[in-house]
Amino acid sequence: MTTMENQLFPVTGAGLGLRREKLDEMLESDLSSVNFMEVAPENWINVGGTFGKKLRQFTEKYDFVCHGLSLSIGSPSPLDEDFVRDVGNFINTHGIKHYSEHLTYCSDDGHLYDLLPIPFSEEAVHYVAERIRRVQDILQQEISMENASYYTPAPGKEMEEIEFINAVLEEADCGLLLDVNNIYVNSINHHYDPIEFLKQLPAKRIRYAHIAGHYNEADDLIVDTHGADIIDPVWDILHKAYEHFGVFPTLLERDFNIPPVPELLTEVEQIIAMQNQWQNHLKKPQSTTTSS
């Protein structure tokens, strides 16, 4: 097992994404099993009134992380530094523990519909890493990049996906948001071993993780929708991740077809059960043999 001793995580335990359409139900629910929550800052920056007050009720009670949608770290357009400062103000206002984004791009002359893959090239590594460092300089804190799902590689591929991710994280000196479902999705769509991929990620950079469901378009094409229950092969990858790296904070993502809160909490509690299993396993004294 790769050691994660002395690892400093921004949050702990199991988390749940806060969605606006579920605010009232969540306020009325027993969320005692939830250790932290997550929002997309774009959906909440400068939001006041009733929604703003309800958000404050949550951020005063729970630890929060932010997972952004529109930083567009790989965009050919200049970095939107005004937006980064807006994110910084939101982080400070609500005491957000950590900010993460996708290792993708979604803009050029205006925002695009989807999160698109960055070319796996040395030039792209330097370009993206410099932009990540600039964001960290503005925010005066570390951010994390998420291993993203993609459906066709960008032109100009010079290295494998895992090499690209590791090179960006190292050069930018940033954290990793480990998306378990994205590993599974990409392993099916691009035909690689998800566990071998997982084990090559850098333990020291993991800050927290996402786990989610997806949609099977065809036998060899999976779409990362966050709109379904988590399937057993994805749970198995999380199990292997805890076995290999040790336990780290893990958040349930559900963005579409969101079921009642009790059903969401069933999957949160499954995360907790798996975390407890591995924490208890790690606490067991290791047997030793002696010779006379």
Determine the fraction of residues in helical runs and give it as a percent range.
25-40%
Into how many domains do the coordinates divide? Answer: 1
Adjacency order of strands in the biggest sheet: 1-2-3-4-7-8-9-12
**What's the total number of strands?**
12
Radius of gyration: 19 Å
Strand content: 15-25%
| Average residue pLDDT | 90
CATH topology: TIM Barrel
CATH architecture identity: Alpha-Beta Barrel
**Assigned CATH class:** Alpha Beta
Order of helices and strands: EHEHEHEEEHEHEHHEEEHEH
Largest sheet, strands/sense/barrel? 8 strands, parallel, barrel
The CATH superfamily bears the name: Divalent-metal-dependent TIM barrel enzymes
Cα(first) to Cα(last) distance is 30 Å
Q: Based on CA inertia axes, which overall geometry fits? A: globular
Uncertain segments? 287-292
Keywords:
single chain, 292 residues, TIM Barrel, eight-stranded parallel β-barrel, 9 helices, globular
Write the layout of secondary structure elements.
Elements: E1 14-17, H1 23-27, E2 36-39, H2 49-59, E3 63-67, H3 81-94, E4 98-102, E5 105-108, E6 110-116, H4 122-139, E7 144-146, H5 161-172, E8 175-179, H6 180-190, H7 194-199, E9 206-211, E10 215-218, E11 221-223, H8 232-245, E12 250-252, H9 261-283
What does this structure look like?
- This protein has 292 residues and is α/β, with parallel strands linked by helices.
- It has a single domain, classed as Alpha-Beta Barrel (TIM Barrel), CATH 3.20.20.150.
- It is 39% helix and 18% strand.
- It contains 9 helices and 12 strands.
- The strands form 3 sheets. It has an 8-stranded parallel barrel. A two-stranded antiparallel ribbon has the order 5-6.
- Strand 1, helix 1 and strand 2 (36-39) form a beta-alpha-beta unit.
- Helix 4 (122-139) packs parallel to helix 5 and helix 6 (180-190) crosses helix 8.
- The chain starts with 13 loop residues before the first strand and ends in a 9-residue tail after the last helix.
- Mean pLDDT is 90; it is low at 287-292.
